[in-house]
């Protein structure tokens, strides 16, 4: 198979119409049909069911479609990387950031970096923390900003940036807003929203279990913005890192007797294989006043 065949198939998958697909692909309908048939012969099964106007993908076709889409995305990324490399003085940084980190601590940092490095393009990606090392070593990402402890892999360098505490978050009109510190018993009286991506989650649950507190979530979600908007609107409370708020009207207070912290770090490939752009980012991160 070749890229043209892949693109023809994806056009069929999108339009589910051979006539329209042939027009969009700028080839004749018989040629398009022959191309799809060659793919089917190569895979040993039907990819497309042709039933008059009711053209549809088979189960095999749906599986193949997903993989073909990944191939086209990879091709586009390779082309972009090559263009940026050949364009003198221009660089691109792919940086992964985990969901549970808010942008507040990074806005000024990246603004400063972009101001000093106008020829470097930054692309930010949502990353599963457990996959960060693999993404760095494979070259998919140049760096990851996450909260896991330093790795034992000698090919990866981890630079700690700052610490943050776990705090209780609630809406600005909540009764709890009058208190400088929140007791655990107060949390039992509120609708508790459980952030599934929260790095503090297991440590806080251990405290709940140890003290035999009746704190059960009324809602669980890995959608950070959904939970925060619910909290800001006064529908309940949640735990947040002190720099993690991404919506307005959220107030955060420390919890009495709870001293849980996490360290945010940036990880990148170690040694001379790192690009000049990522080494420039590393130097700024080392000298940046994160605690100001």
Write a structural description:
This protein has ten helices and eleven strands. By secondary structure, the chain is an alpha/beta fold. It has three domains: 3-85, Winged helix-like DNA-binding domain superfamily/Winged helix DNA-binding domain (Arc Repressor Mutant, subunit A), CATH 1.10.10.10; 90-162 and 263-287, Periplasmic binding protein-like II (D-Maltodextrin-Binding Protein, domain 2); 164-261, D-Maltodextrin-Binding Protein, domain 2 (3-Layer(aba) Sandwich), CATH 3.40.190.10. The N and C termini lie far apart (56 Å).
Strand and helix layout:
Blueprint: H1 3-15, H2 18-25, H3 29-43, E1 48-49, E2 56-57, H4 59-86, E3 91-97, H5 107-116, E4 120-126, H6 132-138, E5 143-146, E6 156-171, H7 184-187, E7 192-195, H8 201-210, E8 217-221, H9 224-232, E9 238-241, E10 250-253, E11 261-269, H10 276-287
Parallel strand pairs: 3-4, 3-5, 7-8
Antiparallel strand pairs: 1-2, 5-11, 6-9, 6-10, 6-11
Helix pairs in contact: 1-2, 1-4, 2-3
């Amino acid at each position: 198979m070749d890229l043209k065949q892949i693109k023809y198939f994806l056009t069929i998958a999108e339009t589910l119409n051979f006539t329209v697909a042939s027009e969009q692909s700028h080839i004749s309908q018989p040629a398009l049909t022959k191309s799809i048939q060659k793919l089917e012969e190569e895979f040993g099964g039907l990819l497309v069911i042709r039933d008059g106007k009711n053209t549809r993908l088979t189960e095999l076709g749906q599986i193949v479609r997903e993989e073909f889409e990944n191939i086209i995305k990879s091709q586009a990324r390779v082309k972009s990387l090559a263009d940026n490399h050949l364009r003198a003085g221009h660089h691109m940084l792919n940086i992964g950031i985990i969901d549970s980190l808010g942008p507040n601590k990074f806005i000024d940092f990246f603004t400063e970096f972009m101001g000093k490095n106008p020829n470097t393009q930054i692309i930010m990606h949502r990353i599963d923390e457990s996959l960060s090392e693999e993404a760095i070593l494979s070259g998919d990402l140049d760096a990851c900003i996450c909260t896991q402890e330093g790795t034992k892999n000698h090919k990866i360098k981890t630079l700690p940036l700052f610490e943050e505490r776990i705090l209780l978050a609630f809406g600005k009109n909540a009764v709890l807003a009058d208190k400088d510190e929140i007791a655990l018993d107060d949390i039992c009286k509120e609708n508790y929203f459980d952030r599934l991506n929260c790095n503090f989650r297991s440590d806080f649950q251990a405290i709940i279990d140890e003290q035999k507190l009746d704190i059960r979530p009324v809602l669980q979600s890995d959608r950070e913005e959904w939970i925060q908007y619910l909290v800001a609107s006064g529908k309940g409370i949640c735990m947040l890192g002190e720099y993690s708020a991404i919506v307005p009207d959220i107030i955060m207070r420390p919890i009495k007797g709870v001293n849980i912290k996490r360290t945010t770090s940036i990880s990148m490939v170690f040694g001379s294989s790192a690009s000049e752009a990522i080494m420039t980012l590393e130097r700024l991160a080392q000298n940046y006043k994160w605690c100001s």
